[in-house]
Amino acid sequence: MLRFVSTPLRLVDQTFRVLLTTFAFTFFYCGGSVLSWLRLPIGWLGGGSRIERIRRCQRIVQNGFVFFHDFMRVGRLIGFDPRKVGLRLPPGPCVLVANHPTLVDVTAIIATVGNLSCVVKRILFFSPTLGPLLRFCWHINSGAGDATAGAAVMVESLQRLRSGMTVLIFPEGTRSPEGGLRAFNRGAFEIASRADVPVVPVFLSCHPAMLSKEAPWYRAPAIPAQYHMIQLPTLDPKRWNGDSRAMAADVQALYQLCLEGKAPAARGPREPKPRVELAKAVGA
Amino acid sequence: MVELIKELKELIVESLMLEDVVPADIVTDDPLFGSGLGLDSIDALELSMAIHKRYGVRIAADDEKNREIFRSVGSLATFIAAHRTQEGVAP
Asked: Does ipTM top 0.85?
């Protein structure tokens, strides 16, 4: 549509989207503060066991993130509707892994899945706007982010899984480079293996790239971005006999295929045949 | 101390099942993580469990000093020597 309109009009459109992005993030942090200091404390006081309180807070935040993505979709910033993804998670707890192309991957996944705990970088736990929110929803502090912090993340993740929660980990440890992947760490796979729960890989993509590590948040692409969340076949760590290093390498190879457009499932989440082919590709 | 350092190097190779490394390859003061031996966080976890089993020294998961303790084989040996409760026994 916009491809056919004149350049000045497109510039107006682009400028408008930059302003709207600014508004969206202001809105996000204001909303985060309201949740952190008002809505979640009220939700917490609603009674029930500790886990029930956490789940209630997670639902409140999920609704908030659904609204955030609705806003960005209607504002033509990022076309993504969490209601239409249709992830099918295993019945029990699982470890969700994903690549990390944008700043809004966590909000997109939480808006879709809800009852999950994510490994979040330490500095955010001390943020006045988001810190309390992260604590109320029982997210996992990544610690210093170096090798010696791994043990604490492992202990906390296992605790979440035992409580029946899904744990979300980005094996790259931070946002992916544009159009690519960083080396996968094996922590997520080791955790799944020790907890004996399945790994659910989710492939995320955003075209044209925006809110990536390279692109500053205020740079809007020429056309509104489309965001896709695609569930890949669920993997049982037992197939790798507890070798999390090998599993991490195989899952990384699977994501590489998705990025290159070679993985057939990357075209649509509900085609049965490609899922079987993908399962073969990773030896599952 | 020399004996302990030698034991530790053996323990690292054994407990982490390093395939292309022999104990003598490990330089006492080289970093264990990243640029040096290239261990990762799961290796750190397994190594601390192996150390606990062998020397009775418990290294807390969330100890801020871990980074310093796990810097190299040398620093690990100093820590164990100061805190050990049992003689190194072969597992």
From this structure: no
